[in-house]
Amino acid sequence: MNAPTPTGRRRDHGGETYCEWQRTFHAPIDDVWAAVTEPERLARWIGTWTGDPADDHVKFQMLFEGDDMPSERFRIDECDRPRRLRITTSMPYDGDDPEHWLLRLDLEESDGITTLTFAQNVPDPKMAEGVGPGWDYYLDRMAAAETGADVTAVDFARYSPEMSGYYVAEFGD
């Protein structure tokens, strides 16, 4: 099996530097939206959430990072179903500065094919070394889940540290 190829690119939006990835799905936009927003669909490839989005935040729990990973608070900054979602994450153990990641999800459909553009801010270029391979891994897990492939066959050991050099170069540190 070939090693996965890094797909993230450096992009600037609204004064922030992001790493941005795209995945294309042969599915209607509502179906892809469900894959990135419904707890049971998310649980197949990354994690799940609890709470009421009407409160403008939920608790998100990653399911594949180990048993001691605390849940994160995901503040919903913007939700334009099924096209746009903006989130600010906060970790409970980050003390005085708990907000640290901005996540952007944009979906577009054309002729039954939906493109997901996912981005995370990268305020420190050194973060790209871990953020890049991590999101390539999770987005490939999402693609596997959505196509009926074996999600467990997507092995993080094939992503990191092999991809880290690419992302360090992409962010010019």
Automatic annotation (TrEMBL):
Pfam family, one: AHSA1
SUPFAM superfamilies per the UniProt record, alphabetical: Bet v1-like
InterPro entries, alphabetized: ASHA1/2-like_C (IPR013538), START-like_dom_sf (IPR023393)
Gene3D superfamilies for this protein: 3.30.530.20
Domain Activator of Hsp90 ATPase homologue 1/2-like C-terminal: 27-144
Family: Belongs to the AHA1 family.
Protein name per Swiss-Prot or TrEMBL: Uncharacterized protein YndB with AHSA1/START domain
Organism: Gordonia humi
